[in-house]
Specification:
Low-confidence stretches: 330-350
Bound molecules: zinc ion
Protein name: RING-type domain-containing protein
Largest sheet: 3 strands, antiparallel
Structural class: mainly alpha
Helix content: 55-70%
Shape: globular
Number of strands: 5
Radius of gyration: 25 Å
Mean pLDDT: 83
Order of helices and strands: HHHHHHHHHHEEEEEHHHHH
Strand order of the largest sheet: 1-2-3
Distance between the termini: 26 Å
């Protein structure tokens, strides 16, 4: 939906869009959210526990920034402390998203760090001082290009040949220098970005207006065999607990308007101040202070996640050792594919030129988007809850 609105196209985003397209959309959403966040939180209030609001808020405030920043900003800037925190936050997301392998790999890395820290091992200082050098990006990128330019039926000799040609072509640019016309990225144009960001702001404000109108109407759907899903009223979709916030995966299902510690109303008219924290659980300030400003429901879920994934990894590793000694069986291709869940990074970008060419010719596009923003803002600020 965002793609259709922002790029003014009737064409829906493909099922497997190019990583570049995803990146552009996420960047636009992030910049738009930065601008309108105070307006949105001002309207919904600091203890809104509406399921749909929490769903979108988490996505914009946590998942999207973690996904965008962890490598390109935190890792590449060499900011060690923030990078480690980013790895832990990414692991939390993988845990409640129930991702295979990714819910274990960051734990292996963090475990190494804590071990070296405990032993005061010199490698830790090397890592801290030269973080950017410890990247497997060139290898990953090379793998992606080889995957992109080869087929699943290629033999090992053919793959080796393709890899050598790709490697040689990295240094021989005479053909490209002569015949390929270098174009400035369409997104390098500041006006284009301003226009697209403005449109993303309009899109988000309209989405939040609809959520506000249907406040309290999203519901928990209990399916067969204890399975719980959530029906989001204005987006009109049903989502699983893993698509919600961390708190929805904990043992304590968060209540819609009560304190998750004392179970009394968060807003009980006594003027008690309350807070809804990032996991979605909400507490009276006084209850939260008693808990040492920690959400024990979610802390328990994370601790259990660490325990279960570590023991699962250890048991897998021990089985691997046994099967190796029993027979020299070939690695299972399906496992290799599943382990490598990254999409190719060098896919062709389609249509962007055409879409932005229309904007470029239309000098009225930016003023029109600004006008649409003012209307959307007024509508959002005046939105009322629809009573059904
Ligand atoms: Zn309380
Ligand atoms: Zn919590």
């Amino acid at each position: 939906m965002e793609c259709q609105y922002v790029f003014s196209t009737s064409k829906a985003l493909s099922i497997s869009p190019s990583p570049y397209r995803i990146f552009v959309l996420l960047e636009l959403v992030r910049s738009a959210w930065k601008e309108i966040r105070p307006i949105v939180t001002g309207k919904f209030g600091k203890y809104c526990k509406d399921i749909e609001f929490l769903f979108l808020f988490e996505l914009l405030d946590n998942t999207v920034p973690v996904g965008l920043d962890i490598y390109s900003t935190l890792f590449r800037s060499g900011d060690w402390k923030s990078y480690i925190e980013g790895v832990f936050r990414a692991w939390c997301i993988f845990l409640w998203f129930e991702r295979r392998n990714y819910n274990k790999a960051p734990l292996v890395f963090l475990s190494d760090i804590f071990y070296w820290n405990q032993k005061n091992h010199p490698i830790l200082n090397v890592l801290k001082d030269h973080l950017v050098k410890f990247t497997d990006y060139p290898v990953e990128n090379m793998h992606s290009i080889i995957r992109w330019q080869s087929s699943s039926t290629d033999t090992s000799q053919q793959l080796s040949k393709i890899a050598k040609v790709i490697n040689a072509r990295r240094d021989i640019n005479v053909f490209e220098d002569t015949f390929v016309v270098q174009k400035k990225s369409i997104y390098a144009d500041k006006d284009n970005m301003r226009l697209l960001t403005k449109k993303a702001q309009v899109f988000l404000l309209e989405t939040f207006s609809k959520i506000y109108q249907r406040l309290g109407q999203s519901s928990i759907v209990k399916g067969p065999g204890k399975k719980i899903t959530y029906k989001l009223a204005s987006l009109d979709i049903i989502v699983d607990k893993k698509q919600m916030l961390l708190g929805f995966s904990s043992e304590h299902l968060l209540s819609s308007d009560k304190c998750d510690q004392c179970h009394r109303l968060l807003c009980d008219g006594t003027g008690k101040s309350s807070v809804v924290i990032a996991c979605g659980h909400g507490y009276h300030e006084s209850c939260f202070t008693l808990l040492n400003k920690k959400c024990y429901h979610c802390e328990n879920f994370l601790k259990l996640g660490i325990k279960n994934n570590v023991s699962s990894l250890l048991s897998r590793l021990s089985k691997l050792d046994k099967s190796k000694s029993k027979s020299k069986s070939k690695p299972n291709l399906q496992e290799i594919i599943e382990a490598d869940e990254d999409s190719p990074q060098n896919q062709r970008i389609e249509n962007e030129d055409d879409i932005l060419e229309v904007f470029r010719k239309n000098k009225q596009a930016l003023p029109k988007a600004e006008q649409a923003y003012s209307i959307a803002l007024e509508k959002f600020l005046n939105a009322n809850v629809t009573i059904i």
